[in-house]
Amino acid sequence: MAADGEGGMDAGALEIDAHLGRAHTRVEGPDKVTGRALYSSDLTGPETGTAHAALVTSTVARGRITGFDLAAAERVPGLLGIFTHRDFAGAVAPVKHLMAGGFANSSHRPLDSDVVAYAGQIVALVVAETLEAAAAAAGAVRVSYAEEPAAGGFDAPGAETLRLADLKPHHADIERGDAESGLADAAVRVEARYATPAQHHNPIELFTTRAAWDGDRLTVHEPTRYVGAVQHGLAAQLGLDPAQVRVVAGLIGGHFGSKFALSQHTALVALAARRLGRPVSLVPSRRNCFTIANYRPESRHRIRLGADRTGRFTALVHEAETVTSRFDPFVMEGAEVTASLYACPNIRTEERAVRVDRNTPGPMRAPPEVPFLFALESAVDEMAAALNMDPIALRRLNDTAVDPVTGKPFSTRPLMACFDAGARAFGWSRRAPRPGTMRDGPWRVGLGCAASVRPVKIAAATMRVRLGPDGAAEVACAHHEIGNGITTLLALGAADGLGVAVERVTVRLGDTDLPPAGISGGSSTTTSLMNALALGCGQLRAVLAQAATGQGGRLAGQDPASLRLAGGRLVAPDGTGIALSEAVGPEGVATVAEFVPEGSDRETALRGLRGGHIGLALGGAGKAVSWGFGAQFAEVRVHAETGEIRVARLTGAFAAGRILNPLTAKSQLMGGMIWGLGSALLEETVLDGATYRNPDLAEYLVPTAADAPEVEALLVPDPDDQVDALGLKGLGELGIIGMNAAIANAVHHATGRRIRSLPIRLEDMA
Ligand code: MOS
């Protein structure tokens, strides 16, 4: 059902199976690769009258601004304005964090006062006729500070550790059975500490904002993944009616967790545009992007895992702490997933947040599973080694059809099917059981594996579906094309649901003038939007069927519910039919579907959506536990003399419900797997006190084409009739999860060395 080339949507949802389920290239691909595609940063030509902004950011991590020396900056030709807290104090009203009922990715307000809360905070916005002049003037601004001591990370003096349960009202640590006696009774125990570093998003497209006023109406172009939150957040910040604010995201050049809701710089650009009476565009530097946006916080874990002599888990304790800012309740929570992964009678989790003087962290592809499963899946591998057992066999022994914490059934549980498919494709059977025994010339060879799991998320979304008299269709909503291929899925889905050719479908996204649809996040885009589209196409067909079967209609007297779509015609059971183009009439028809996930309160969900709030529900409607699954495999080679670590092959097998486009699905998964390689071996934001020391792509390492090995992503069938009406799970994040552990486990297998702190470096092999 979910395998390549099979199946489309069910009747009554999206009727035909001509397009969905089959590989299709991206409909917006040609524009992207020929340069015709325009991004927010491109809207700055001279004909637009746009002025250019640049940022001055704090060089100290905490304290107060005592003065500005602007003399040199003011001599830069083309300078239009330098805005500091002296200009903008009080101009931006406070807005809460998105996860606390507000709209912002950080509730911190730069340029509101002389207070510096973290290094890299915006302290001035400089605007000039050209980007070069703005950058030159920003570079010439001298700021003096009264510096105060800052806590940069774990263990720093002044860092404040809180139990998550005390910080976030909804968080509850897990306690099932008696973990301590479960550990005491265990025949074998693994007790270990793991650590993952801070990491920063580096999408190709920077965190741009362009603001233009037309009277008291504001239009913002920004590559955000939630135009609705930016609209409502800006309105609240600037004292406007949301109807006065239009936010356009257009195409988005990557985000994967960044570009998260309302940013601190957006209102400042809008204020500058208002003061100067012309559009202002800020294209921040790569260096700026390390501090004006969010990042994956560093994490530390202590895992204690007990097993009986046969390998059955008797107890699991997962204690974790992650860094957050002083001023926001955002914390990366993750032990809920690790606690529920394997059968175990005694489970305890404890999560803590450590408040430091840095900006608020945020989601980064597969928060929190990337760091949390690194810890658990490393510990499971350590347990397999301690038991002298194959790591896959150990996972099979502890596989479970019910969530051990809640007792609810998984809607499907293809974890071991993923391991089986992956192991076959990868050649796991060639793995020598004993670590350090496989060699290829000077290279020590290691094979490792780990699980990938992620709870399915789904959100309310509205979707406008239109069919014109010429047979052209349009689907539109205020969601976003982040590069994941949703434009293509919507075009394929509308083609199936309305019986038109893909080329006759126009997809419009990324604009608050369109019907609202929530955040592109949590791998919820496909689940939410395709269910909304199915609803919209169904509504539109029902309207047409009513008209065609009504008095004077071509199919008068037929039961409207009996009509089916076939070959672009509405066909009755007796074979009579009418072409859709004829059924729509000269005006065409349009409908707006309001999709609300099963189990969510309709009024609340739609109100939240219209108000720009976040509203992600879990798949499975609260009755079943619905996760996407995967098994990651890595072959690493560690040079016996130099310690150089190379990844030779990656194989991943994934089960994520019905697959709508195997081509874009595999692209997503492969991209994630390569990012997982980066997370294991390369990516780390280096902290010096509370300051980032490698904020550029020369020193912040991500995998290049030369680092990327042979990568194979397999799709495992996963028919799930409980997760949502269409059996969709989403897989935007599944591909990265577990890969860091698979590589660390492979390094152990190659060398006998267990590295518990990422990234794994050559010096760890010494
Ligand atoms: Mo994800 S980085 O939770 O959209």
TrEMBL record:
Domain of life of the native organism: Bacteria
SMART domains in the record: Ald_Xan_dh_C
UniProt domain Aldehyde oxidase/xanthine dehydrogenase a/b hammerhead: residue ranges: 34-149
Keywords assigned by UniProt, alphabetized: Molybdenum, Oxidoreductase
Oxidoreductase among keywords: yes
SUPFAM superfamilies in UniProt: CO dehydrogenase molybdoprotein N-domain-like, Molybdenum cofactor-binding domain
UniProt cross-references to Pfam families, sorted A to Z: Ald_Xan_dh_C (PF01315), MoCoBD_1 (PF02738), MoCoBD_2 (PF20256)
Name this protein carries in UniProt: Xanthine dehydrogenase family protein molybdopterin-binding subunit
Organism: Methylobacterium longum
Biological classification of the source: Bacteria, Pseudomonadati, Pseudomonadota, Alphaproteobacteria, Hyphomicrobiales
